[in-house]
Predict the structure.
Amino acid sequence: KRRGKVRAGKLYYLRDLEGKAARIKEDLAAGQQAKAAKLAAAAAASAE
């Protein structure tokens, strides 16, 4: 899943936009944490 940070007021503004204009800053830290958790689980499974 993709996640992003945006203020509530900006969401109302973005609803009327289309295409690239409607992009928001993606929260890359959330994706990195999920990837690290998967790697840790895989490492633990292979160590057993």
The chain has a mean pLDDT of 75. Helices lie at 8-14, 28-47. The CA atoms of residues 6 and 12 lie 11 Å apart. The first helix runs from residue 8 to 14.
